[in-house]
From TrEMBL:
Residues 109-283 form the D-isomer specific 2-hydroxyacid dehydrogenase NAD-binding domain. It comes from the Bacteria. Keywords: NAD, NADP, Oxidoreductase. InterPro entries: D-isomer_2-hydroxyacid_DH (IPR050223), D-isomer_2_OHA_DH_cat_dom (IPR006139), D-isomer_DH_NAD-bd (IPR006140), NAD(P)-bd_dom_sf (IPR036291). GO terms for cellular component: cytosol. Residues 13-314 form the D-isomer specific 2-hydroxyacid dehydrogenase catalytic domain. The keyword Hydrolase does not apply. This is Hydroxyacid dehydrogenase. CDD domains: HPPR (cd12156). Signal peptide: none annotated. Belongs to the D-isomer specific 2-hydroxyacid dehydrogenase family. One of its GO terms (molecular function) is NAD binding.
Amino acid sequence: MDKPHILQIGPYPEWDMERLEKQFEVHRYFEARDKAAFVAERAGLIRGIATRAKLGANKALIDALPNLEIISVYGVGYDAVDLEAAKAAGVRVTNTPDVLTGDVADLSVAMMLTASRGVIGAQDWVRSGDWQSKGSFPLQTRVFGKRVGILGLGRIGYEIARRCAAFDMDVAYRNLKPKDLAEDWTFESSAEALAERSDFLFVTLTGGAANKHVVDQKVIEALGPNGMLINVSRATNVDETALLEALEKKTLGFACLDVFEGEPALNPRFIALDNVLLQPHHASGTFETRKAMGKLVFDNLVAQFEGRPLPTPVI
Ligand code: 8YV
């Protein structure tokens, strides 16, 4: 039987490519110079899209593929897929939840610890000889026992909260509704109230229009000059202009960021700051997790073409 044809929107590691190419006719959209012509030439053949969280699939692309059945996203976030267009066209959408939760939580907490204890600057202190010439490294800020706020208590938010609780931190969260939890974490009624009571505020909201700029100037100011913002979700959840201004004026103490508007070309004002820890959107970037994500992208495609239930459907 002919292999199903899929359109690959962004690159994957070698191990994923091998598996995909064995099973499917893979059309590498990301390597095409003239994208529109590339799609037009094979539009009728394509039954599946394999994409990445950040790249998604827009309405124009979905509408250009009359035989499209499924969009399989390499990532838990599917905000870059036009869900309405997919629904209207009867196209299924899948993502890669759960397998990345622990790694994203680990990097989030690692950023909080690294930044608070000055780990990067402290290594520079050793390497540069400052330890010998200047003496002890400047004192840093304690983490354990402090107040932490989780904005969005989904799977990732919950795992961050659990890790923070193990550091004897006082945990509070903001969610659409209070959660029925075994833990005695405090529910706050607004993002601003959560920021107000927090030393560290983790942003773990889903992306998309509904959460655009939930972290606005007011929330940033409520967190204040001694507060730290940690964003591992989507840049759109934070008003980046307000964030940059607050960091420059030091009305916000510090920000740890794994996501940026227009990434990887981030605003150069971030680079000039000394109160940020900047990471290249790699919270899910371990061998173990990326292998599991690639396997789910593949399994969802195969299930669709074999008429079986999808392992991780969004719609
Ligand atoms: C990306 C992510 O998928 O899962 C998400 O929503 O943003 C990340 O895990 C990853 O960077 C690969 O594109």
